[in-house]
Amino acid sequence: MKTHGLLAGVLLGLLGAAPAPAPTRVPDDAGATVVLAAPARRVVSLAPHVTELLYAAGAGGYVVGAVDYSDYPEAAKRIPRVGSYTGLDLEAIVALRPDLIIAWQSGNPPSQVERLRALGLAVYVSEPRHIEDVATNIERLGRLAGTADAALRAARAFRQRHEALRRRYAARPAVTVFYQIWDRPLMTVNGKQLISDVIHLCGGRNVFADLPILAPTVDVEAVLAADPEAIVASGAGASRPEWFDAWRRWPQLRAVRRDNLFVVPPDVLQRHGPRILDGAEHLCADLEAARGRR
């Protein structure tokens, strides 16, 4: 009887035990698959746009470390710093005991990201190249952090807003655009960079889309030869860059002749996060103004 009772107890225990949850498997933007046994509860963000993506996904409360300039939303300013996106403090990152690190493929030093992987840490790589990729990143980060419902809602709202802009500007006459990141060296973006997708959304055409490098250096002569109808800059801060109006030295440029020198705040156009649609609305309005000056 005792044996029968023991066996029955074991069987009941086995039947009543909850099955172990399946690991979460999520592809990242570099083509790798990130596997977590449980939702991430200690997340380190290695780029400002990543921090914004995490908050949009409902996972902001789990971010224990971030890099400099992770200043949106307001709560992000209080997160401990682990260096800048171009130079990481690996000791500080490891000391935070993260169960997930979100890296930026084209921004973080590859050797430092690989060292984190070599330590056995889970690393998801973010690299949105198209506006849709922003929504996809929100969904994926929500799955990794166990906040999928909030992430799905945010991604759905983002896509609806994106589609509204597409419908509004898709059929508008094209405007040739030179987008200027910086003045010395004179830098722009090619057609594979997210900003170029925003230009396309607004009915613009990036005059340097065919260059092979994401953020190539060009010279004034190349801009003069392209003769863009609009020149757009973001600079480093919210104010108009001091160097931007130097283009007025070339009055033969259509952009100068028609006063199509536009500035979009960098935080809403040069960060690959949810506010990219704020930047898109700003840029689309500028290009519409350029059409009206023909």
UniProtKB/TrEMBL annotation:
Signal sequence extent: 1-22
Fe/B12 periplasmic-binding domain segment(s) = 42-291
Q: Which UniProt keywords apply?
A: Signal
InterPro entries linked to this entry: ABC_Transporter_SBP, ABC_transptr_periplasmic_BD, Vit_B12_bind_prot
Q: Name one Pfam family in it.
A: Peripla_BP_2
Annotated PANTHER family: MOLYBDATE-BINDING PROTEIN MOLA, VITAMIN B12-BINDING PROTEIN
List the NCBIfam families.
Answer: TroA_like
Per its record, how is this protein called by name?
Answer: Cobalamin-binding protein
- Please report the organism this UniProt entry assigns to the protein: Candidatus Muproteobacteria bacterium RIFCSPHIGHO2_01_FULL_65_16
| Lineage of the species this protein comes from | Bacteria, Pseudomonadati, Pseudomonadota, Candidatus Muproteobacteria
